[in-house]
Amino acid sequence: MDRRQFALGLTGTAFAGLLGACTAMRYGATGPAPRAYGPLEPDPAGFLDLPQGFSYRVISAFGDRMDDGFVVPDRADGMGCFALDRRRVALVRNHELQARHLDTGPIRGAASPRIAAYDRNDAGAALPGGTTTIVYDLATGKIERQHLSLVGTIRNCAGGTTPWGSWLTCEEDLTRAGNGVARDHGWVFEVPANAQGLAEPVPLTAMGRFNHEAAAVDPRTGIVYLTEDRDDSLLYRFLPEAKGRLARGGRLQALALVEPGLTDSRNWNGVALPQGQWAATRWVDLDGVESPDDDLRKRGGAKGALLFARGEGIHFGKGELYFCCTSGGAAKLGQVMRYRPSRFEGQARDKSEPGRLQNFVESADPAQFNFGDNLTVAPNGHLIVCEDQYTNPVDNHLRGITPAGELYAFARLRAQTELAGACFSPDGSTLFVNVYSPGKTLAITGTWSTFAA
Asked: Which of 189, 242, 262, 284 is spaced 20 to 30 A from 4 at the CA atom?
């Protein structure tokens, strides 16, 4: 039973407290709240509270019939947004479905058509995990088309956009061939945003087999950074043989710190990486990255790689990388890490000028920040972070974080599930976000320019 299944049995009403003035956090300490976008206004529909001047619409929902005849699957998770032309965008959306979730997948019933699925179960049914693609018109606020774009995978959790117009979708699963399926899982797959149908399901095995969560690409170098959802996870980087050609292979490495003996960022047993402090980094080479025994992180740790507490959402913006560590920090309520690559990232000279890592935000209070997951960088440079906590009661928000490390509540979900996959349209007019289950995709618009710290 996973944490989301457990949450289905929870009862009770969400606690109040964040409908008034926003609460701020600067490097973990409470203080005067930023004005942000104002207090959250109760949604008359009882679904999503937003500040005054903002509204949402449901543009796609679990069970809707898509243009290819399949249905929108459940468990909508990570998502990326891509410009198709001046007014249309493509949203590529993950569905975190396991092999047993055929009834909530895109293809109903035991029999599956002979489509290009990565894997099938012992009965020949295509595994239900994968992605769907939505073509959305920003001018009209309507869907032009939606279709299945990858199928046959397991637990497509998060991922990341690429500068060349594709979505990297990541399996948070390590099922081996023979356990009710025909092929190994634990891979990253690439889905072109402009594909009109199913993408070719090619696992990018050189990017490692582990409990993948998310990916982000540095547009300058083409290096891919990868998070891992484990209590003792690592941060990985993939150095491709050819920029933008990930299927050609490359080298996988794990982040470590230059300072000897500092190998744990989780802060569970005393302060190891103080908030706000920068630390010089190095990268250790990894071998045997297809890892049949799921020991890649352990072998990396033995080489001095830095441990993180459940690395999740990751996003590259304006020359630096942000990623969530869901249960990191002394209070185990979550951290946001920031990484600044060196000028020579991925080159031999990066040893002489290392990158730098910072424990940017660490929560000490669940009312400020509680289990951050997917995140994105807003047009104004703020982070928008999706909370993913399933304590009783479930009370998840979209949190904003200013460049100074102050937190504010941007949205509050009244449903007993999580928000996921936050991403902005390229013109900055619309924030798209998923509701996990029953799966929905929302478009949020409003007075983005009113923010004042």
From this structure: 189
Residue-wise pLDDT tens digits, 365-407: 999 899 999 999 998 889 999 999 998 789 999 999 999 999 9
Cross-strand partners of 424: 431
What confidence tens digit (pLDDT) does each residue in 223-233 have? 999 999 999 99
CB 436 within 8 A of CB 95: no
| Torsional sign, CA 426, 368, 157, 241 | positive
Q: Which of 301, 368, 302 is nearest to 329 (CA)?
A: 368
* Structure tokens that stand for 52 in this block: 């005054």
User: Is 175 within 8 Å of 182 (Cβ atoms)?
Assistant: no
Q: Which two tokens stand for residue 338?
A: 């920031």
Q: Give Cβ neighbours of residue 383 (< 8 Å, ≥ 6 apart).
A: 315, 322, 336, 375, 376, 377, 399, 400, 401
Query: Rounded distance, CA 163 to CA 438, Å?
Result: 31
What single-letter amino acid sits at 321?
L
Three-state DSSP class for residue 451? coil
Structure-token pair, residue 403: 């460049």
384, amino acid identity: I
